[in-house]
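[job 4471] stage=fold_predict status=RUNNING
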Amino acid sequence: MAMRTKVIQTGLIPRNWNFVAITLFGLVFTADRRRVDSRVLNHELIHCSQQLEWLYIPFFILYIGEWLWHLLRLRNSDKAYRAISFEREAYSHEGDPDYLKHRRRYANYRHS
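[job 4471] inference complete, writing C-alpha cells
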C-alpha cells in the first residue's frame, strides 16, 4: 500500500537531537524539512503504516515496551533503539521506495 503523509517542520524538535524526523499519528515532524530526503521519508512512512495497523496507542505501548526491554538487556540506549522490531523493519527497508506497495501486515514481527 503506497502512503502519503504530511511533513511538518517545527521548532519543538531540537536540531541537535540524534534523529531527523519523528512520526506521530501519521504525521512526520522534523526540525529541518531539508534533511528529510527520500530515504528518511520512506523510513517514516513505514512507521506510519506500522502505527496505523497497530491502531496508534498499542503501537506506542509496544514501541516503548520493546525499547525498555532492550535497554535493560543491552544497557545502551542507541543499541536498544536499533533493536526495536519497528525500527529494524524501517531501517531494513528505508532504501526500497516500493516496499510499502508489497509490505505484509505486522511485518515488524515477521522481520525478526
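[job 4471] summary: The radius of gyration is 14 Å.
[job 4471] exit 0
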